[in-house]
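User: Here's a structure from my thesis project, written as structure tokens. My advisor, Dr. K., wants to see whether a designed sequence matches the one we expressed. Can you design one independently, without my sequence as a hint?
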């Protein structure tokens, strides 16, 4: 059948098993590193904090650092493409481009992100339990709340914002995923540089447009965006942010696929 050219469940299963066999140590060490990293982040920060009142949002900086380390794992997808000899062997494996793409997508994003978030929960709560009360350092573990994602999203965040946050994390992951296929060596660093250049270019373009269309409202590097209400609690600026953060993956995932396909030609 024609569709077997693009996806065959048996061939995909063999390819997936082969990836697990070759990279199982890498995945295990990555999981171990993530949970130890989460533990170390939280233990260190709470050991030096002098807050009289702790709340669930004290975990946000540690969670941000943790997600950055998860980004390193995502940014190193398609490890076989980093070496010319391994790359040739990988591209000649019996499997379609779509199947090779899906193996990495499943392991590096779809499975990794939920597992990583669970590992942060484990590491953060272990850090709280292992803290020892020290009056001299003003450390009192009993005043530190246990970490859970439900409480983290309670602070007046509506369902739309929750979905936007989740999709934005997925979109950022797709950027790193695309970079791992686009760049051969030092993919993670090059992706970050390219991403930063892209962000700066967009901001400078917005500054230029602001000076052209709204010269009376801006000076220097200021940006002026007229805002207007689209719904009771939705402005045009919010919609713009939702669209960029929540839908960018629709561009970067196909880019990853076609870049991988290009390498096979």
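Assistant: Designed independently from the structure alone:
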């Amino acid at each position: 059948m024609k569709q077997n050219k693009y996806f065959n469940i048996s061939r995909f299963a063999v390819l997936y098993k082969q990836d697990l066999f070759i990279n199982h140590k890498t995945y295990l060490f990555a999981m171990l590193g993530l949970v130890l990293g989460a533990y170390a982040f939280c233990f260190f920060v709470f050991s030096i904090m002098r807050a009289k009142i702790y709340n669930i949002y004290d975990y946000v900086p540690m969670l941000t650092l943790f997600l950055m380390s998860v980004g390193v794992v995502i940014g190193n997808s398609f490890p076989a493409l980093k070496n010319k000899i391994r790359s040739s062997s990988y591209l000649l494996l019996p499997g379609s481009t779509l199947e090779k793409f899906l193996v990495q997508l499943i392991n590096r994003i779809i499975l990794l992100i939920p597992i990583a978030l669970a590992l942060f929960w484990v590491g953060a709560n272990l850090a709280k339990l292992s803290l020892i009360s020290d009056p001299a350092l003003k450390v009192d573990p009993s005043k530190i709340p246990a970490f859970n994602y439900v409480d983290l999203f309670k602070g007046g965040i509506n369902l739309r914002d929750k979905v936007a946050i989740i999709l934005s994390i997925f979109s950022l992951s797709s950027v790193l995923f695309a970079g791992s296929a686009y760049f051969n060596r030092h993919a993670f660093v090059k992706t970050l540089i390219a991403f930063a250049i892209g962000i700066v270019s967009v901001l400078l373009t917005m500054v230029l447009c602001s000076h052209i269309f709204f010269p009376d409202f801006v000076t220097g590097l200021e940006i002026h965006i007229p805002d207007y209400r689209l719904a009771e609690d939705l402005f045009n600026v919010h919609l713009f942010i939702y669209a960029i953060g929540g839908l960018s993956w629709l561009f970067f995932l196909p880019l990853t696929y076609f870049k991988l396909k290009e390498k096979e030609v």
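When you compare it with your expressed construct, this may help: The first strand starts at residue 229 and ends at 231.
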